[in-house]
Amino acid sequence: MANFEVLRKNIKNHLAHCLKSSDVSEFHKKCVTVCGNEIERKSGVDQALRDTLLSVLSENLTETVGALESYVTLTIELCRTDLASPSMPVMLLSDMFDAMTLDKCEQLFTYVENNVTVWKEDLFFNSCKNHLLRMCNDLLRRLSRSQQTVFCGRILLFLAKFFPFSERSGVNIVSEFNVDNYTEFGNDKAANNESEQGKNFARKRRILPQKT
């Protein structure tokens, strides 16, 4: 545990420099130098990313979401170089949404929508799909369906674009149906009688011309 704590701190320091320079290749070299074991190195990078997110959030909560978007983009690049777990970008996004107001969440969700092709890549899809679904459901629980209808619709449309038609979560596997819903259909004969009664009433009131 002590060794992992030292590893986490070292990687966190290197990550701070990487944030300023955006040099992923240099960060990769330093991480390999710090730890030769791939599994331990990836765990250390994952933890360092979440720790650093606290600082990024505290510095940018009152500003635009541009810095947060850049942070997630950097994480995506780290995943592509096999330095971080593929689920980390969405996990960081989920933490961001939990810490922000709904107005900021709506701004940041634009980034999620614009990168739907990234989340559908083979590298990310299987690792991220459950986290993305949970993140969107958490957002929907916070929103008012009557007041934030546009944002709710954007989330549902994103899920429709992200998940394929064959996805089990969108299929009624157990064949459960809403049998409580009952719709009464009117009788054509009764409807005609009501229409004729309405016409007779209108003639008495001299609204319609009398029959000849």
Automatic annotation (TrEMBL):
GO biological process entries: mRNA export from nucleus
One term under GO cellular component: THO complex part of transcription export complex
Pfam family, one: efThoc1
Domain of life, source organism: Eukaryota
UniProt-listed InterPro entries: THO_THOC1 (IPR021861)
Protein's UniProt name: THOC1 protein
Organism: Fopius arisanus
